[in-house]
């Protein structure tokens, strides 16, 4: 029971789900309980810190807040130390070396089909110049190669990784965890923060293919723009997805 709480903070809210913070408790409300099933199952399997599940009463999942703060925010410089970024890389390596989860993820073929659809939409609706879309689509295709499946977070963005000083305190939002390309996670975390890629790989390992990570930056940005726009987010904000695409020009 939460007593003495005066404020309710809306962390994120859109048509699919909402997350509220009440004191030191996060309440996640999801209309599709399959995502919550994945989140809970993934957190039980991974070897890195995750929020404590306090209770679950569908459609609500209550999680304890993690100590520390997010590694950063998209569109803003990250003030986290190089060691904190390296700690995030080391955590990603531990995750990717875990046994695969029993549920599947998206294949390269599925990503290719989505890329075809979203690029046609971006050009056909005049959302972005055709040359910008075409250039980034060519870059993105390098990510669509055969990969060895790994246990991935699936939405390993900068606001989902928490640190306290140089130490990683946990990773949140596991609803998209699945089998997939390990480099997708690394690209998601460094999207819009490519200057921190060296710090991340210092903890993850230098064997990661940087060209494929760059390809995922383009692919993820191209796929995200329509969804972000339709759910009340602004992919054209400074440092966000459209700037990521422009940087490839």
TrEMBL record:
<dbReference type="InterPro" id="IPR002575">
    <property type="entry name" value="Aminoglycoside_PTrfase"/>
</dbReference>
<dbReference type="InterPro" id="IPR051678">
    <property type="entry name" value="AGP_Transferase"/>
</dbReference>
<protein>
    <submittedName>
        <fullName>Aminoglycoside phosphotransferase</fullName>
    </submittedName>
</protein>
<dbReference type="Pfam" id="PF01636">
    <property type="entry name" value="APH"/>
</dbReference>
<dbReference type="InterPro" id="IPR011009">
    <property type="entry name" value="Kinase-like_dom_sf"/>
</dbReference>
<feature type="domain" description="Aminoglycoside phosphotransferase">
    <location>
        <begin position="44"/>
        <end position="215"/>
    </location>
</feature>
